[in-house]
Amino acid sequence: MTKKSFPSSAGEMFQDYFAGGREDSYKKRDLIDARARRIFENTALACSMDAYPFQAPLSTRSGPVVEMDGHRMLMLSSYDYLGLIGNPRVDEAAIAAIRKYGTGTGGARLLTGTLDLHRELEEAVANFKGTEAAITYTSGYAANLAVISALFGPADRVILDALSHRSLMDACRLAGVPVQTFAHNDPASLREQLQKETGANRTLIVSDGVFSMDGDIGCLPDLIALKKEFGCFLLIDESHASGVLGKHGRGTDEHFGVSTDDVDIWTGSLAKAIPASGGFVAVSKRLAIFLQHASAPFIFSGAMSAPVAAAACEAFNILREDPERVACLHSSAIFLREGLQSLGYDTGLSQTAVIPVMLHDDAKTALFARKLRDYGILVSPVMFPAVAQGTARLRLCVTAAHTREHLHFALDVFEKMRSE
What we know:
Layout: H1 10-14, H2 37-48, E1 65-68, E2 71-75, H3 88-101, H4 116-129, E3 133-137, H5 140-151, E4 157-161, H6 166-175, E5 179-182, H7 187-194, E6 203-208, H8 220-230, E7 233-237, H9 252-256, E8 265-269, E9 279-283, H10 285-294, H11 296-300, H12 306-321, H13 324-342, E10 354-360, H14 362-374, E11 377-378, E12 380-382, E13 392-397, H15 404-419
Parallel strand pairs: 2-11, 4-5, 4-6, 6-7, 7-8
Antiparallel strand pairs: 1-2, 3-9, 8-9, 10-13, 12-13
């Protein structure tokens, strides 16, 4: 195992912006005020140590092995859970769509931007989730903003799991809806919040299916039971669960064996296990019709491009035909997680292909990721404010394309890092 000296991405990204002593102003009337101080100070520190860990530019497609700065690297933080990026069928579907439709749509979905491909994709999503209908958006983030802001407002309330994705909190801010949180995956805490009398017209409970930072699974059966008991509505974000949970990869409902209809709103991403971009909302036909005419991203944003829609459609076809990819993913995730645990690493709450390595300290985490790069491994460090202070971690993501050789190599490097 040879250790090399790979450059960080800071030199190319920022050139000499952070070189030398800069005296920046953070006055309250400045465009960049005091809230930005931490960002600039931490970035400057990372650059001074050649340890800036983000925005590493790849010169090849993502996959188990990528190329960066002319060097081959093992990628261990890609969301490509099913290993479908670069799949010939997916690529050919996208290429054929470009030849037929071009690269843009020329309009928003409600107006002139809808293609028959969008209808095909939405039918595929609805069939995948077992709902009457589905709507697609240009990102999973936009999907969450769309559905919450269209349905809820100041007279209602939303109760979120404390570790719900940032897009869900931002959606509530956009809607102006009052927000309560319950302790992560804690039904007793949710019950306590539900029992608080707020005078709200309607209550929406929100949780992730798989939590993106910790890799654990939402307590869906408990959420459904409480939703029914208190007469609430329930939204589950399946971004990291679709293609990952359940024998056929259908998500959290298949994992627990519960009815899809027990959840009012399913949202998710088409940029993770599905190797495209975009997001979806899977709902009843009535709700889909409403969102087509009331959700701002559907009305006012340019439609998803044809090659993206075609790629996503073909990926759903592959997943339907080859569910063994899901079993392969599960097996590899268990192998890496248990291997890391045997070396003494804390993998937090992980139950899925998202495997945090808890290091707690921000600086230690950034430097660890930097050293892994010198061994030829790309791993994302996750630090405050993406996670709470004191909970910094490396976020590893296993894919169905990782071989045992890839994972053995990773474990060998992590073992060597312990001795260093």
